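User: Can you help me understand a structure? I only have the sequence.
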Amino acid sequence: MTEAEPETSWRAVTQTVFSVLAVAVALNFVAGRCLERYSTNLGYRLIAFKWRLLGKQDKPVDMLILGDSAGNQGYNPEYLRQRTGNTGLNLATLGNFGLVDDAWMLQEYVERVGTPKRVLLIHVYDAWYRRPQAGLFGVIPRWRAQSAEAERELRWKPGTRYDLLENRLLPLYSQRQSLRDTLEFAFWRVVLNKADFARFRARDSRFPEADPVYHADGYVEMCGALPRVVAADVSGHIRWLSRRPRPQLSGDNVRALQTMIRIAEKHDITLSIVPSPIANTLAARREFKRYVTGLDDNLRRLTRGHPKVQLITERFQATPQQMQNADHLACETVPAYTDWVAAQLKAADEHPADTKPPPPAPRPSASQPAAPRPAPFGPEPPQ
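Assistant: Let's start by predicting it. Here is the structure, written out as C-alpha cells:
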C-alpha cells in the first residue's frame, strides 16, 4: 500500500509563502519595539525614545533643547518650568550624529508642530569635528534616513541607505547582539534576587550600570557620580589633546549648523549654542584651554553676522564627584547646570555679543585622531 501524495497548487504555495513572510514581519516588528523600549544598548534606545517623543508633539514649547547625550542628561526642562514657568522639550541624542539630527529634528518640529521661542544647542567640545556615524541613522524611525537625498547630503558610500533600511526593518538580524543581551538581561533580572542581580550587572560591561529614567519632557535622568570613570575619561581626553589636534568643524556639522541658522532667521527663533558641562580637572589643563579657544573662534566666525544666534563660550565646571564621565553630569548636579544655563542666556539676551572680529583661524588639519567616547549612551557599531 502506497501513501497518496498531497495535491499541490499555486494557491497553497502562495499562501504558505505569505504566511512565512507575515510571521517574519511580525517577529521583526516585535523585536524592534522591544529594543526601542528595553534594549541594553542605551544609545539606540535613546534615539528611538527622542524621535517617538518628537512625533507626539502637538504644540510648540518655549525652549527646544537639541544636542548630544551631555545635554540629554544634563538639562532638565521641568526644573526650569517650575522656576520660571517656561516650557521646554529635551530632544538631545548622541554626539556621534554630529549636528545632523539636530537640524533634521528642528526642521520637522517647525514644519509640523510650530516655532519655539528659543533653540538651545548643547554639545561636548569634541563633537564639532566628528562626521556622523552612518549606522546610527538606521535607528531613526523616519524614512528620510533611507533616502537617496540623505545619502547624497551626507556623502555616504553607495548602498549605505540600503544597509540602514536593513537595520530598520530586520532588527532580528541587524541588532541580534543587542537583542541577545536584552533577553539575557531580562532573564537574570527576573531570576536573581536584587542583591545578586546588582552584582551581576556591575561585573558585566555589556549592561548599563543603572537604569535611566525617561521623563515626559525628554530629559533622561542618570544618577550616581562615577569619579573613577571620570578620572579615566579625563586621562583619555588629555592624551588626545596632547597630540595637538587642530580645532575644526567637520563639513557635515558646518552645513547642519547653517541650516539651523537659516531656520532660526526665517522663523524668528533665537538659537543659543551652549557648551556641555566639563570636569574641572580637564578644564584646568592647558591643552584643553588651547583647543576650546580655537573652537570658539571658529564658531564665532561661522555665526558672525547672524543676530538670532547666541554663542556662549563660558563653561560650567563640575568636580569628578558630580559627574559620570568627563562631560556628563550625574543627576544630582543637573539643577545647578540648568540654573547656570538660564543665567548665561539671560546675560546674552541683555548684552548681545560685540562686533569685534576674532583672531585668525588656525590652519586646517588633514586628519585628527578620534577622541575617546566612554559616554553612558555609547552606540553599538552596526553588525
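Now, to help you interpret it: The longest strand covers residues 118-123. Confidence is low (pLDDT under 50) at residues 354-383. Let me know which part you'd like to focus on.
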